[in-house]
Amino acid sequence: MLDEIRDLIAAHARPDLRTPVDGLLLSRVDTTEPEHSLTEPLLVLMAQGGKRLLLGDRVFEYRAGQFLLVTAALPVTGRFLEAPSLGAGLVLRPSAIAPLLLEAPAPRAPAGPAIATGDADADLLDAVTRLLRLLDRPADVPVLAPLIEREILWRLLTGPCGPTLRQIGLADSSLSLVGRAIGRIRENYAEPMRIAELARLCGLSASAFHRHFRAVTAMSPLQFQKRIRLQEARSLLLARPDDVAGVGHLVGYDSPSQFSREYRRLFGAPPGRDAARLRAAAPALP
Cβ atoms within 10 A of the Cβ of 244, count? Predict the structure, then answer.
């Protein structure tokens, strides 16, 4: 089945990752350069190659025949282990997961951070294969795609990574408790962080907020904010490579030296030099 999945991804993958099946993403990556990105809740099945992700101080790796499960918006550093790599992604929607929790067995283990990896068994591979086949039968998509999506979610919920996935659909899970704070930090990353305000937003004490936040993100709220700031700065520097101090100020740094120091620690080069390298590597416009 993995060979068919690989062939279907290769035939239908587009630069924007999108497909005619709502929530289904396909990717072909031809580089092993490190990348820094902000994840979204997603299931990714690796069909060819492999990838290593760093979240805080934790490392997650998955290869062909394995999957990655991400249940929150998290700043991660990743690198594909070989090229080309082929993968299929499915957007994880709380509205699709919550109804299944009424039927799923209670988890036997507590949930860990909002990222997990696992081996794709034959049932999961079969469901993903059938979802991909719909790309060649568009008339079947409106009826069959939601049913297959439900089956894929069920396979995950009843498997070893079920406790991680069910966090999306539970109102009182650690993910739900800190989800508002994650959204607030993402939207207001340049503003000074007020832990008491974030804790109050989540209905938690400051100590409980720290504990739940780290359980989900594998980092402290301040570390999370710093990673968001630096990733946003990197994007801005592509358009403003000669305004390092200005970009640093836009993302919340009052000290240019602190901005440059932390930027270099994350990306391996000072802001100006890193921006020049990224611009040189970007494809030329037609």
Answer: 21
Which pLDDT score, from 0 to 100, does residue 281 have? 66
- Of 73, 72, 87, 69, the residue nearest 153 (C-alpha): 69
pLDDT bucket at 108, cuts 50 / 70 / 90: low
- Separation CA 224–CA 236 (nearest Å): 19
Q: Residue 286 has what pLDDT?
A: 34
Backbone angles phi, psi at 201, to 5 degrees: -60, -35
Range of the domain at 255: 223-281
Do 181 and 163 fall into the same domain?
A: no
Classify residue 127: in a domain, yes or no. Answer: yes
What are 46-49's contacts with CB under 8 Å, separation 24+? 46/85, 46/86, 46/87, 47/2, 47/5, 47/6, 47/9, 47/86, 47/87, 47/88, 48/6, 48/9, 48/84, 48/85, 48/86, 49/80, 49/81, 49/82, 49/83, 49/84, 49/85, 49/86, 49/87
For residue range 223-257, what is the model confidence (pLDDT) as tens digits? 999 999 999 999 898 888 889 999 999 999 999 99
Tell me whether residue 181 is in a domain.
yes
